[in-house]
Every structure is written in structure tokens, then in C-alpha cells.
Design brief:
Aminoglycoside 3'-phosphotransferase, Chain: A, domain 2; three-stranded antiparallel sheet; Phosphorylase Kinase, domain 1; alpha+beta
Length: 310
């Protein structure tokens, strides 16, 4: 799709006051553009998959002051795929903060995770990645964690196992990590909370001392709320400007400050980081990103080898 085609489509759909169309350079499963209509700014995304947009629409019903989630204003078919239009949130991206600014933002970030933990999920069921209907397919949280080794024909990244096995890194590190995951999974409680599961990758926008938006809920799960903390902890080395930020320690201090008892916090975070590393290896193998696969495998084994007693 070229910009003139998209601009013409927007004008036809929304009117001649569409202005300032600009591509947004982020997104693995969708392509995004910003535009305005004589004032308010918007984002239009295009994808071959409509499920992620439908999940965003449902996630918007969970929004609160602490957990800002933009609504989906319009969703439908276009260019042989699907589109979604949302208001554009102000601010910059969490990924682009340096360490001092990140430290300032941590209370708001943990506040958003607390708000997600308080979301009422009583009208839905299941564990793991939920669908456009709000339902998730697994009968337990532990079952979903162990399912990381599956390469189903119906999966969006089907074929990753063969590509992993044939890669320069090979399947050995994955199998070692999987063995450690099986050892650790017993410490994980069967808790069912709303989990974003992709807080990096330009999915959190920040403004001043707070969050202006948490977007892209396509990977969202039902499970242990610590999974989001583990996500930040696992991928932190990919952000050199964050060197020295201890997400695990910050989380422990936050939960102590609000009086929340979190049993086996360190062991649970280790388990989830190993799981995240295994999922990262599968994804990078599917994409053929061999240096990223190697780095993710090293990080996974480093975490798996830690001795954690609490």
C-alpha cells in the first residue's frame, strides 16, 4: 500500500479534511499511519489479521485512569485485509526513555499493572492468550506455560520448530530451557488476571509523569500478573539506556509498599522469564532472525541457570 492510496481511502471514508498522513515505523503484524482531521489526531492500522484489532476493542472496556487504553472508533475490511482507527495518544514511547526518566515513570507503570490486576474477568474463562470473544483455550495457567513447545498448524508462526532446528543456534538451547521450565512451573499459582504480555515494542506511551496509552493487546493473556514484570526484566538488556534498572527489585518494593503479599516472587519471575525466552526463540526462528535468536537463547539459559530459592 502506498501513502496516496491510503490517503485517498481515508478521504473517501472520512472526508476531505484528512491531513498530514505519516507512516509509523513500528509493528510486527500491522502497518500504522497517523493523520488528523483539522485538529484531533488519529491512528489507522492495517493488518492481515482482524483478531488483534478485535482484542484491542475489547481491551478498551478495561480502560481506567491508571490504565489508559484508546478505543477503537472504526474497524472493518480494506485493501484485502482489515483496518482499525483509534485516537492518537500524546507523548513518547517507554522504549525511548533513558534510565532517569524510566525511574520517574516506574510508579505509573506499576500503577497500570495494578489496574490490570483489578480488572473484572468474571464474564470470561480460560488461561493463556484470549481471543476476540474474550475466552482463552487453556484449562490452567501451567498448561498454557508448558504449551510454549507446541507448533500447531493453525498457529500464526507455524513452522518455527523446523526453522529453529535448522538454524545456526539449533534446538539444543530451547530444549534445555524447556526442561528448566518444567522444573519451575510448579511454583506458579493458578491465578487469573489480565496480562498485556508485550509492554515493550512501542506499546506504552508516556507523557510527563504518567502513561498516556497502553496499546496493542494482541498478545494479551489471562494468568499471573507477574508475567508483565518478567517481560520487562527479560528484555531489559536490549535497552542499553536502562542499564542498572532492577525491574525485579522495583516490583518487590512496589508490592511491599502497597501491602500485597506475592509468594515465591523470585521463582515465579524466573519461570516466566524462561518462558518468555522460549517464546522469543520460537518467534525469531519463524522470522529467520538468527542473531536475535542466538542472543535470546543465551539470555534464556543465563536466567535458567540462576539459583532462586524464594
Amino acid at each position: 500500500m502506498t501513502d496516496p492510496r491510503i490517503e485517498a481511502w481515508l478521504v473517501e471514508r472520512l472526508g476531505a479534511d484528512v491531513r498530514n498522513l505519516a507512516a509509523v515505523g513500528h509493528g510486527e503484524w500491522s502497518t500504522a499511519y497517523t493523520f488528523d482531521r483539522g485538529g484531533p489526531a488519529y491512528v489507522v492500522r492495517f493488518s492481515a489479521f482482524d483478531a488483534d484489532f478485535a482484542k484491542d476493542r475489547l481491551a478498551a472496556s478495561f480502560a481506567s485512569a491508571e490504565l489508559p487504553i484508546p478505543p477503537i472508533l472504526d474497524l472493518g475490511q480494506a485493501f484485502g485485509g482489515f483496518y482499525a482507527i483509534s485516537p492518537r495518544a500524546p507523548g513518547g514511547f517507554l522504549d525511548e526513555l533513558d534510565r532517569p526518566r524510566l525511574q520517574v515513570m516506574l510508579p505509573a507503570l506499576f500503577g497500570a499493572l495494578d489496574a490490570a490486576r483489578r480488572v473484572d474477568l468474571s464474564t470470561s474463562a480460560g488461561y493463556g492468550e484470549w481471543g476476540a470473544d474474550g475466552m482463552a483455550p487453556h484449562s490452567s495457567w501451567r498448561a498454557w506455560l508448558l504449551d510454549v513447545a507446541s507448533d500447531r498448524p493453525s498457529g500464526r508462526t507455524h513452522g518455527w520448530w523446523d526453522r529453529l532446528a535448522a538454524s545456526p543456534t539449533g534446538a539444543g538451547p530451547f530444549e534445555l530451557g524447556l526442561s528448566r521450565l518444567r522444573d519451575l512451573v510448579g511454583v506458579c499459582p493458578e491465578q487469573r488476571y489480565l496480562v498485556h504480555a508485550d509492554l515493550l515494542n512501542y506499546n506504552v506511551l508516556v507523557l510527563d509523569h504518567g502513561l498516556s496509552a497502553v496499546i496493542d493487546w494482541g498478545c494479551s493473556l489471562y494468568g499471573d500478573f507477574l508475567y508483565d514484570v518478567a517481560w520487562l526484566a527479560f528484555w531489559a538488556p536490549w535497552y542499553p539506556a536502562w542499564a542498572g534498572v532492577d525491574f525485579e527489585g522495583e516490583a518487590a518494593r512496589h508490592y511491599a509498599a502497597i501491602g500485597l503479599d506475592v509468594p515465591r516472587l523470585a521463582a515465579r519471575l524466573q519461570c516466566y522469564q524462561v518462558h518468555i525466552g522460549l517464546g522469543g526463540q520460537a518467534y525469531n526462528a519463524f522470522k529467520g532472525r538468527w542473531p536475535a535468536l542466538e542472543a535470546t537463547a543465551r539470555r534464556t539459559l543465563e536466567i535458567a541457570a540462576r539459583s532462586v530459592s524464594s
